[in-house]
Amino acid sequence: MKGKQWVLVKHFEGEPKDEDLELQEFDLPDELNEGEVLLEGLYWTVDPYMRPYSKRYTPPLTMFGEQLAKVIKTRNGEYPLGTIVLSMSGWRSHFISNGNDLKPISFDLGSTPLSYCLGTLGMPGATAYFGLMSLLEPKKGDKLILNGAAGAVGSVVGQLAKIHGCEVIAFVGDDSKLDWCKNELGFDHVFNYKKVDFSEVIQKVAPDGCELFFDNVGGNWYHTIINKHLKKYGKATICGSIENYNDKEVKLYPNTNYSILSKELRIQGIIVHTFAKDWPKAFTEMNQYIQEGKLKVKETTYEGFENMRSAFYGLFKGENTGKAIVKA
Q1: 244 and 183 housed in the same domain
Q2: What is the SS3 assignment for 268?
Q3: What DSSP element (H or E) covers 74?
Q4: Where's the Oxidoreductase N-terminal domain (predicted)?
Q5: What is the predicted pLDDT for the residue at 253?
Q6: Cβ(148)–Cβ(166) below 8 Å
Q7: Residues 6 or more apart from 271 whose CB is under 8 A from it?
Q8: Is 0.85 topped by the overall pTM?
């Protein structure tokens, strides 16, 4: 039996290119050893963090990431045939495990689609939940600036903020995303940043400044909002910097540290696995919101493992609304 895997054959330089990632076949053994299971991928995630994290490794290597997989052959009593698990097994169609790297779903999904465990009820959703609730500690009436508002993380941040009584000032990259965030998700102010000066419109809708900022984009967004639009004692969660991931040169902004100092801002990055022990509680809470219709989920689904590369590259072109998922 053969499996397929996407291999990073050379580091990305600037915009990712087709020659950076190669689809390869590999052999799987005919028989399993005692304690092993053979799994087949059902859904795979692509996420922006994969771009900067790839620099940590030396090519060639199988691209890393999480997938939902099903046990199709087993010699492990803990994982009978048909068991569905989460695994950081990378961009592979099939893989063999001794069970140590497999993670059963830790909460009751109910009628919620399985694929949500890679998005709103997975790492991106946990990032949104803890980046907002634990780091920003939103209060009723707070104004929240949110970029990347139609993405896997941002769309959840904005909805949770609304549930907790915040006023959400959101930015997206096209008008269809604007329509979704404004009319379906109920964000208070939504702008297509390609058609406005984001600093000018923030000044217009929040002339006295904002208490909170959830940053998925970085670059000029981060520095402009820190310098101009947060109130004294304001708080910011730094989640991502997708504006900079393809930069070849490091840019410096010397004024920003003084703004943080003079306004006594609290700026904190989030590595979501810091909160791993509390994920099941957060997912149970968010799944209840989903069941009640308070938290809406959208996925951009790419059909076929062969489209992993296209799905990944699409993240940097703004192709996805909500979570980008690859389905077998």
Answers
A1: yes
A2: strand
A3: strand 67-74
A4: 4-105
A5: 66
A6: no
A7: none
A8: yes
